[in-house]
Design a protein that fits this description.
915 residues; elongated; binds adenosine-5'-diphosphate
Length: 915
């Protein structure tokens, strides 16, 4: 609609788009063309023009106009102010940003139109609204800054001030960051085209359903970041750019007050454990793979935190395991101390249960959105923090560094300024202070003489009102006469219909209501005037005192944030101790070597799921890698065979999860564990078509395999499950073979490789470093029994038919399958003259031992196959007519001659018994 679209018929009436109110709106809107403006009118937020059209669609609201019936009427829709946060959250969830526009002067004081202005902008990744934020999850907005071949990456939780940055060197690493951090919104440079990154940008935008916002490249990053702590070393240009971009963006959304971002933490790539997208998903760290629920994830099992901040820190630690031995030793020392001093830990957890989300409270106070109940919670937290620090400092055996409040300087975490703040808040605030200042009663009695005096006046006023009511009843003889108060008309005397005859002449009628009439008298008006003045003064005084209190909080924001982070980490560590005690976890020994020795390891999630284990989880060892140079025979590569459902993938995952737990600072579910820290964890487990990405199972599988082969180092941990299952048997086996060889002989990473291709068992004979293990099975009354125990050596067979039987496949089909299997095995064994490793007609080349010193690609003899042979083995002669048999024989003979001829030329031998 044209704003100037005058309506000729409307001459003489004001153009609705030209009222002062709409001019005020348009002035504000012109500053925020991209966002939806929530314009405060009385108790509603209204939207106009295109904003109204769009919001009515996105929020399912009725679209109306301001001036019905005119062609140039302004489209509008609105939401009640008390319900606004839900609507705003709906819009931001759909990728839109909202500008919240409030009345910025007191309507009572305003001359003419009340002044309104934008007070904050809510974007998909930036909100400080309690009603919308999940206490246990950080709400990150991230920034990606392409530099050279890599990217600067920064992420900020505006609601808490948590701010991190790092440098990544590839798109895959960038994606890994995005998966772990799960930002709600990503900002990137407008000029990404100029960096030749247009295609990448587009790819990321389509791949990630989060909101993407383009912002200009920051002109002076150092200035933007200048005031932050810990910026001792100069930042790389990428990090500086990303951090400045996201901080500037966040600051631009907060139009009142300053964001309390005081610190930028750098993630050290050298010690950061790489967790790619697949690992995060398949190890079910934060949510289960299929249902995508938190229950059943590792986080759900290990989370024993009792504070919101602790929950967020645990999540962050889990997303960022570390190989920093010093840091891990500190965490493990702390957990060990807490496990030992059980009573203290219990008291500490009780104190922590009284700790509120002060990071978010302080942020809201700094942004002038804080309320009195939040300050009351801040006060309680300070009280609990004091109790906790006393508890830890007073302990006879001083706790290790992470638990000692302030280390050397005992007052570092609870400086006198915080204690003073706690005292002031305790004296100043009413315990049950209301959310809205205007409801009165925020300031406690005895804190301020003026408040006390004004309150006395008000109370006196209401006593006088009661007296007036009584005297008027007596004077008029109207027994049910009552004095009331309405927001619009103020004080009144109400008389019911039946008593109207008794109303004296000095009553002045004000209003007619359903039950009777309302009046005022000069005495009532005088009393009202006095009361109102006292109330107005009282409210103003309370507001002023509240403002003083918030200023006092803002002044100590830095120590408050430090205290908040300390409390959160103590909560995580105490949670680890609780987990260790209840779950019988032990302290892992960490070392800078490539050894892994887990004794009686358990899967942390499966072991607590009685439904999965029938109540009994079977523990297993895992020994991999070199402890020292003298121990060079130790296997680094476990080839795991065994039937479906035997527990292969549970075993592999438990090894990875134990390593991961150790490297976030937790104890581990085992009887003992030596863990040579890993630099990356790779997984390729299970197959699920990623249809949302338009890729087949096999394509996904190969992409993940490629990522592993490119990124793996000697310090990595690799889990591969059923590689090569998505294609034909031969292709699959060939790929599995080559991948296994590469990992075992060249990459030399600690690898767990589960497979159905029993042929791969041959790898163990080819050189050091590969060991065959299998999941033990037994038989009971002719039925397969899973023992869940990892034992040396390959599985004798696949038991596929037995498992099919347990799954309910009909008996006649099973019988037939057994017959076919017997024939296949007989044919192949007879023809190739080999044992069970040649079930599919594979011939394995000479085993060339590979010494650790010789890590060139060695041809270990590619497996060769005969399609004819397998087809022959599968022919069911009983079901063929004589003519069909002759025709088939003719065809196969021809094909086998063609197949054998070139092979004989090449190898000089044939596995075919006929020619
Ligand atoms: P596979 O990968 O060999 O097909 P899984 O690892 O998926 O087998 O295990 C199948 C099921 O067996 C699991 O869901 C779990 O319920 C149970 N299970 C696995 N390992 C154990 C164990 N060590 N102790 C008890 N139950 C187990």
């Amino acid at each position: 609609m044209s704003e100037l679209g005058g309506n000729l018929l409307g001459v003489g009436r004001r153009d609705p788009s030209q009222t002062p109110l709409m001019q005020q709106f348009r002035e504000i809107k012109s500053r925020y063309p991209q966002a939806i403006v929530f314009f405060r009118l009385g108790d509603f937020y209204e939207m106009f023009y295109d904003d109204a059209v769009e919001a009515s669609r996105l929020l399912d609201l009725t679209l109306t106009t301001r001036d019905k019936g005119r062609d140039d009427a302004v489209p509008m829709c609105g939401v009640p102010h008390h319900a606004a946060s839900g609507y705003i959250a709906k819009l931001t969830a759909q990728g839109r940003s909202v500008v919240v526009c409030e009345q910025v002067e007191d309507p009572a004081q305003a001359k003419g139109l009340v002044r309104r202005d934008a007070v904050r902008i809510v974007t998909p990744g930036i909100t400080t609204d309690d009603a919308v934020l999940d206490p246990a999850v950080a709400c990150y907005v991230a920034a990606v800054a392409p530099v050279g071949d890599g990217f600067g990456f920064a992420y900020l939780d505006v609601s808490t001030g948590a701010f991190f940055a790092t440098q990544v060197s590839s798109e895959a690493e960038l994606i890994s960051e995005l998966v772990r951090i799960a930002p709600r919104e990503v900002v990137g440079p407008l000029e990404s085209k100029a960096h030749g990154r247009a295609a990448l940008w587009q790819r990321l935008r389509t791949r990630w359903s989060v909101a993407w916002t383009s912002v200009p490249t920051h002109q002076s990053p150092d200035q933007e970041l200048g005031a932050l702590a810990t910026l001792t070393s100069p930042l790389s240009p990428g990090i500086a750019q990303a951090a400045a971009m996201v901080l500037a963006y966040a600051r631009s959304t907060q139009l009142c007050g300053d964001l309390p971002v005081t610190q930028l933490q750098l993630v050290d790539r050298k010690t950061d454990v790489g967790l790619d997208e697949t690992a995060v998903r398949t190890l079910e760290l934060f949510e289960t793979m299929l249902a995508r629920r938190k229950e059943g994830s590792l986080l759900a099992v290990i989370d024993r935190t009792v504070t919101a901040g602790g929950g967020r820190v645990l999540r962050h630690w889990l997303a960022r395991p570390t190989a920093d031995l010093g840091e891990l030793a500190q965490r493990h020392d702390a957990v060990a101390w807490l496990v030992t001093h059980q009573a203290t830990t219990a008291s500490a957890r009780e104190a922590l249960a009284e700790v509120y989300d002060i990071e978010r409270i302080v942020t809201r106070v700094c942004l002038q959105q804080g309320s009195a109940p939040e300050l009351v919670r801040l006060r309680r937290t300070l009280h609990a923090a004091a109790a906790l620090t006393d508890l830890l400092t007073a302990h006879a055996e001083s706790p290790p560094a992470l638990l000692s409040p302030g280390g050397a300087a005992a007052s570092a975490l609870m400086p006198p300024a915080l204690a003073a703040l706690g005292d002031t808040l305790a004296r100043a605030l009413q315990e049950q202070a209301p959310r809205q200042l205007r409801d009165g009663g925020t300031i406690a009695a005895g804190y301020d003489a003026e408040v006390d005096e004004l309150r006395a006046l008000c109370t006196g006023g209401s006593t006088r009102l009661d007296a007036l009511e009584a005297s008027e009843r007596a004077r008029t003889g109207i027994g049910n006469l009552k004095i009331g108060r309405s927001r619009v008309f103020g004080f009144f005397i109400e008389v019911s219909k039946s008593q109207l005859g008794k109303v004296p002449s000095d009553f002045v009628r004000r209003q007619t209501v359903a039950g009777g009439e309302r009046y005022v008298t000069p005495a009532l008006a005088e009393l009202e005037d006095k009361l109102q003045r006292a109330e107005g003064k009282l409210l103003a005084r309370e507001q002023a005192l509240f403002a003083e209190l918030t200023t006092a909080v803002v002044a100590v924001q830095q120590p408050l944030m430090m205290l908040a982070r300390w409390l959160a980490s103590v909560d995580v560590l105490a949670g680890f101790a609780e987990l260790a005690r209840r779950g019988r976890y032990v302290r892992p020994q960490l070392a800078d070597d490539a050894r892994l020795e887990i004794r009686d390891g358990r899967h942390p999630v499966v072991e607590v799921s009685p439904a999965a284990t029938a109540g009994q989880f079977v523990a297993n060892d895992c020994v991999l890698g070199l402890a020292s140079s003298s121990d060079d025979e130790a296997a680094r590569f476990l080839l795991i065979t065994g039937p479906n459902m035997a527990g292969k993938s549970t075993y592999m995952r438990q090894v990875a999860l134990i390593v991961l737990l150790a490297q976030i600072g937790s104890f581990v579910p085992a009887s003992s564990a030596h863990i040579g820290v890993v630099d990356r964890i790779f997984t390729r487990i299970g197959a699920a078509d990623d249809l949302s990405r338009g890729e087949s199972t096999f394509m996904v599988e190969m992409r993940e395999t490629a990522a592993i082969l490119h990124g793996v180092t000697e310090r990595s941990l690799v889990l591969l499950d059923e590689i090569g299952r998505g294609t034909s048997t031969y292709d699959g086996l060939a790929i599995a073979w080559a991948v296994a060889e590469r990992l075992a002989h060249r990459a030399r990473a600690r690898t767990l490789f589960a497979t159905h291709y029993h042929e791969l068992g041959q790898l163990a004979a080819q050189g050091a470093g590969v060991r065959n293990v299998s999941m033990a099975v037994g038989e009971q009354r002719g039925e397969l029994v899973f023992l869940r125990k990892v034992v040396s050596g390959e599985a004798a067979r696949s038991y596929g038919i037995d498992v099919a039987g347990r799954a309910g496949v009909p008996a006649d089909v099973l019988k037939r399958a057994k017959a076919v299997l017997a024939r296949l095995e007989a044919t192949v064994a007879g023809s190739a003259g080999r044992g069970s490793h040649a079930q599919l007609g594979l011939e394995l080349g000479p085993a060339t031992a590979s010494s650790p010193a010789d890590r060139r690609d060695v041809d270990h003899g590619a497996p060769t196959t005969s399609a004819v042979l397998v087809e022959l083995a599968g022919i069911l002669t009983d079901e063929m007519t004589p003519v069909q048999s002759i025709a088939k024989l003719h065809e196969l003979a021809g094909r086998s001659r063609a197949e054998v001829a070139p092979r004989n030329e090449r190898r000089g031998s044939s596995i075919l018994p006929f020619s």
